[in-house]
Amino acid sequence: MSGPEPAPSRLRPRDVVRVGVTGLRARPARAVLSALGIAVGIAAMVAVVGISASSRAQVDEQLDALGTNLLTVAAGQTIGGEDAALPAGSVDMVARLGPVTAVSAVGEVDASVYRNDEIDATQTNGLAVLAAGTDLLDTVSGVVDNGRWLDDALGAYPAVVLGANAAERMGIDEVDGSVAVWLGGEWFTVAGILDPVPLAPELDSSVLIGWPVAEALLGFDGAPTTIYERSAESQVDAVRAVLPATVNPENPEEVTVSRPSDALAARAATDETLTTLLLALGGVALLVGGIGVANTMVIAVLERRSEIGLRRALGATRAHVRRQFLGESVLLAALGGVGGAVLGGAVTAAFAASRGWPPALPSWVLAGAAGATIVVGALAGAYPAARAARMPPTAALSAV
Amino acid sequence: MNADTLTMTSSPGADAGDASAVVELENVTRVYPGRPPVRALRGVSLRIRRGELIGIVGPSGSGKSTLLNILGTLDRADTGTVRIDGHDVGAMNDRRLSALRAHRIGFVFQQFFLTPGVSALDNVADGLLYTGTPLAGRRRRARATLERVGLGDRTHHRPHELSGGQRQRVAVARALAGAPSLLLADEPTGALDSASGAGVLALLHGLHAGGTTVVVITHDHEVAGSLPRRVDIRDGSIESDRAGRP
Fold first, then answer.
1. What would the pLDDT profile of A338-368 be if each residue is shown by its tens digit?
2. Is some CB atom of chain B closer than 8 A to the CB atom of A321?
3. Ranges A192-196, A302-306, B215-219, B228-232: which has the least confidence
4. Buried b / exposed e across B193-211, counting CB within 10 Å, b at 16+?
5. Which residues in chain B have their CB less than 8 angstroms from residue A1's CB?
6. Is residue B171 assigned to a domain?
């Protein structure tokens, strides 16, 4: 009647999870606290990546709106180190290039601007006076914050449009024609104030006047200092190659051509160093959380010797006991991982909302967080689980 | 199964693999290393036949707990042969021993060892956890077994909502759920008042009447006296093996 040898013990994978959940639920406060360590680490890493991704998404969105096809041509310097000038006809020559869709220029006027005529001549506030073409604003995607732009009519009169910083430094916010500034020995009425221009930040600390009035009143020679040019996106590189020779056929090497959108993108990229550093800090937090889980599991194994003995008596193999504690450890870490991912996502959303950025959280971050918690849980549980499995069932049962 | 067989003497020379024997120990010794070494069992031979209800009685330190562990395959003999349900335990590895415990041996402990916060039904169902039976099947068997021990109306009570006697009945049901060939009860009444203890003993008698092989380890002579066969153990050896209550 003694039957054949019984079928091997078996613990279904689903039951590994069940047993793990039961084990954690027996001491909920401890489970939550040790999961919190993991949660902090994961939340830090998710938030760091999320915030940096949101910041980049904001730059991308800005570039989308501003376009990346703007090239800036500056006169540069002569071989002798002096400021070079562009020929007066260079704007027209650029406009004649086939792919060019828009072109405008500013020319530096040899004059200074002051809030009024009482101010000492050395207190220029570092503001440049520029003569601007009427199509400048459209070319650089600038926006008038208040007042109006220098159109053909206004450009012939002593009217001035202030860059965002220039207006701030002079303390001017009125554009109703009641405010005038002392510019090159003449009164210029403030007609408008610009928003910051991301693609041409040099305009922010400048005051702009019409090309004709600069020539008529201030002795401006009409030579542009900087040319702004837009072309079809696919032709930007080709245009860039021919621009120096086009604007200054005699000394093309003096000309510097830059692409302001590159500078914006590069600013976003420099944040990556900081992001990496913060990510490493989050990793340290995760490591500490993992040690907390390992500690919890070691204590659990010591406390639950009789449970281990009982399970061995019920037919658990050593492998089953190991799997149970390993599973519990991974579950604990996963609990923290889910909490941390939610927390990190919330922090990202809140931070992005406060800055007016589009919230962005790449899916690889969540996959990475899930993977990291499983690895941390498994590593943290390996030693306690091995200890539990090694425990002889008789010792486990007599330990009460 | 041949129920209620009384075996009057131990059978040291029993044939190996006797089909009517659930337990066959031949000259089993167990020494715990130390200074001096503790000789917990000194050549114990014991044969328990299918369907018996037997008490193993001795004071603490007599070796009865070691004997229980060896009967339950939780510990191994240093010398001698141990056959449980016809299988030579000495030749089996951890996996095969665990399989034997999962399918053929049920344990009842003095301290019950119920999982706190888990219903009586699921505590009993855990008796089948390592057989690989799906949860629904485990619960079905658990419900039937709880009814068999008279707790059909307590399936959803958690251990702290049950009396000591009821908890031990749940523990018995857990041991019984897998229909084991051998039920080992270690001081099953040790943590109970006399009325509850009598109830649990009556339950074991009932199981015996139903054909289950039950081994009760106890230091309580009153408990042992109520059992059909009684083996007294002292200093690691069997002192007497006789019929208890006529």
1. 999 999 999 999 999 998 888 888 888 888 8
2. no
3. A192-196
4. eeebbbbbbebbeebbeee
5. 1, 19-20, 50
6. yes
Confidence tier at B6 by pLDDT (50, 70, 90): very low
Tell me the pTM.
0.75
Position B93 in a domain: no
Query: In the predicted model, what is the mean pLDDT of chain B?
Result: 88
Domain boundaries, chain A: 13-63+265-398, 69-260
Whether residue A310 lies within 8 A of chain B, CB to CB, comes out as yes
* Chain B residues touching A322 at Cβ < 8 A: none
In percent, how much of chain B has pLDDT > 70? Answer: 91
* Number of domains present in the structure of chain B: 1
B158 Cβ partners below 8 Å, 6+ apart? B116, B117, B118, B119, B120
Chain A residues lying within 8 Å of B107, measured CB to CB:
310, 313-314
The pair of structure tokens assigned to B170 is 């749940």
Query: In whole angstroms, how far apart are CA A375 and each of A22, A368, B205?
Result: 22, 10, 52
Q: Is A10–B109 a contact, with Cβ atoms under 8 angstroms apart?
A: no
Q: What percentage of residues in chain A have a pLDDT greater than 70?
A: 96
- Taking residues B7-29, what's their average pLDDT? 66
What is the pLDDT at residue A400? 44
pLDDT at residue B12, rounded to an integer: 39
For B:104-143, CB contacts with A below 8 A are 104-105, 107, 109, 111, 113, 115-118, 126-127, 129-132, 134-135
Q: What residues make up the domain containing B120?
A: 51-75+105-243
In a domain, B217, yes or no: yes
Pairing of strands B53-57, B214-218: parallel
For position B118, which CATH number holds? 3.40.50.300
The three state secondary structure string of A271-302 is HHHHHHHHHHHHHHHHHHHHHHHHHHHHHHHH
Domain annotation covers residue B147: yes
Phi (first) and psi of residue A210, to 5 degrees: -70, 150
Half-sphere exposure of A275 (CA within 13 A, CB side): 16
- The pLDDT, as a whole number, for residue B17 is 52
